[in-house]
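Predict the 3D structure for this chain.
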Amino acid sequence: MKIIFTLLLASTVQFGLVHSANAESTLDKIQSTGIFRIATEGAYPPFTYRDASGSLTGFDVDIGREIAHRLNVKPTFIEGKWDGLIAGLDAGRSDAVINQIAITPERQKKYDFSIPYITSQAVLITNKNNNSIKTFSDLKGKTSAHTLTNNFAQIARNNGAEIIGTNGFSQEIELVSTGRADATINDSLSYLDYKKHKPNAPVKIVASDPNAGQTAILLRQGESELKTAIDKAIVDIKADGTYQRIWAQYFGDNTPK
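Done. Predicted structure below.
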């Protein structure tokens, strides 16, 4: 009986070692299926949104498509609310998140990031008739509209604001425009794109954060092969002029960051 148990145990250990050695990495799976699953919000212009025809588009979407092209696979975009994008990555429903994810120390404890592909600046936005908020410190005791887990919400919390939860940038601006929130903080490029399409919107920038944030592609920890492949794709996209072409499409002739 002892001999049989020992043989079974040895077989189990050997099977486990073989299975571990043959386990597919995420990059292997992407290449074998030919599909790169990208989680994105689809509601955050000009980075990821639906255009007038209903097609998914945006700066981040085009970057994702180009990365997939460099990996010789096709992208599949999995849309969802901001607060569910990272949970979907955790659950294995996506291979990466491309949605203006800022690199923060808290996120680096749990996730890996690609090299940065854009540098952006946070701006404080209020109603045009609001003269009580002029700096970030003026948010103390005020309300600020945000999706609950993004880095802009954390900036507001750090300055003493009460957070009003939203589904995305459009709702945040709407709450500020109608006076249901005192302020919001967001990416300067998103604000400029919004004002380009709605120049008469009753909102204004009252302050900007001098510390620019770096945005990168969010990956599960331990995906070193996938990170290396994505990093190379980003470098190549910038080197051959593709990045500059995509940038100009959404942000004009401003120097890409």
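Residues 53 and 223 are 36 Å apart (CA to CA).
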